[in-house]
Amino acid sequence: MSVAPDEFRAALGRFVTGVTILTVRDASGGDHGMTVSAFSSVSLTPPLVLACIARDANMHAVLPGATVFALSILAADQEPLSRRFAQEPDNRFDGVPFTRGHSGAILIAGAHAYLECRQVAWHEAGDHGICVGEVEHATLGTSQPLLYYRGTYARLDR
What confidence tens digit (pLDDT) does each residue in 108-125 have? Predict the structure, then answer.
């Protein structure tokens, strides 16, 4: 017997997550990005991470064909960017400061940390796709991270 969807969502909401923006370039060189909080480490050796992408997100059609992607782990002051990239506008990168990583994927300026990944697997699971990437480059910042808890943004109290 499965748990009811509302109960499951409420239980998962009690798990604090970081907030990332996943970026990728498509085959024609177009940039795509979206907010992802369903992100986790998988393995230290090799260094693997995963990101879950809803089937109804535009990224779900783009990411399976990509060979590389990047994750900008957002800083505490980047909540507006998280909200912006959680929407589906065509112009989400307009006015957003960024650089390009080693792979050519966008790295959002001012983030808490960056992970540049080579995609090693794609799995369909329920109403999401799971992208697994091997981390090829990592860059650390010094800011506090942006957190998500019980349906709202939070910050470390330090």
Answer: 999 999 999 999 999 999
pTM beyond 0.85: the answer is yes
Nearest to 133 by CA among 119, 116, 122, 113: 119
Pair 47, 117: CB distance under 8 Å = no
Q: Which two three-digit tokens encode residue 100?
A: 């390009």
Q: Which residues neighbour 156 within 8 Å (Cβ) at sequence distance 6 or greater?
A: 76, 144, 145, 147
What whole-number distance in Å separates Cα of residue 81 and Cα of residue 96?
Answer: 8
Which CATH number among 3.30.70.660, 2.30.110.10, 2.40.50.140, 1.10.530.10 corresponds to the domain 5-155?
2.30.110.10
Of residues 153, 137, 134, the one with CA closest to residue 145: 153
